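Q: C-alpha cells for this one, please.
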Amino acid sequence: MALGLVFASAFQVPILTQSSLYRICTHPEYLDKLREEAYESQGLKFENNNREMPYLDSFVKESARLGPGPIRKCFQAKIIRIGVPLLSKAVESIVSVPRKVMSRYTSPEGVIVPAGNWVAVPQLPLMRDPRIWPNGDAFDGFRFVQRDDQSISRLTHPSLEFPFWGSIRHACPARFYVSTVVKMVLAHLLVAYEFKLENPTAKPVYSFGKARLPSPFMTLLVRKRVLLDRKRE
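A: Here is the predicted structure, written as C-alpha cells:
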C-alpha cells in the first residue's frame, strides 16, 4: 500500500515543488513570512506537516491553483441539447479526471453525450473562474489563510472548485504524502538556501504532446545561507 502511494505521487511531488519555487522567485514579497514559518516549524514530526505551516500550505495550494496539470488536451468540443448541436469547436485546456463515455448519456438538463466521446473536468478555467475565485487570474499566496493565522482550507482538501486531486469522492489517496513531502522540501530550501531564477522570464512549464511538465530549461541559481542561532539573533 505504502509503495503504491509513493509511485502514485511520484510525478506530482516535483511538479508542485517546481511550481512553488517558481512562485517564490517571482513573488519575493512572500519570502520573509514563509522563511519565518519554516524556521519555527523545524523539528516537526513527519505526520504533523499537514496540520501545521498554514502559510506555506496556502502558498503551495495557490501555486497548484494557477499551475494545474499535467494533462493538456486539445479536442473537438460538442454540446448537444435535445438533438440540436449548440457548440462544436476546437478547445485546448488543462483537464483532469478524463473518462470515456461507454454508452450514450442524457443529463437531466437535456445535454446529450454520445458514446465514444471523452468527458473531463476543465481544471484550468474552473480554478481561475472569477465567479468562484476573487481576482482569479492573480496570484495570492496567502489566499487560504485567515487573519488569525488559521487555514481556510488546506492543500489536501478536494472540492468541486479545486479539482486538483480529482473528484471529492475518489480524491487521490497520495495527496497527503505529496503535501507533506513538498512542504518538507520547500521548508528546508527556505531555511538553508538563497535562490533565484537564472532567467527571470523563463517559463515554468514545458508542453510535450498532451503532457504539461516542469520545464527542464528553468534554471535556479542557488547558494548556501549563513545560518545563525536564532536564540542569538
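A few notes: The chain has a mean pLDDT of 81. The longest strand covers residues 84-94.
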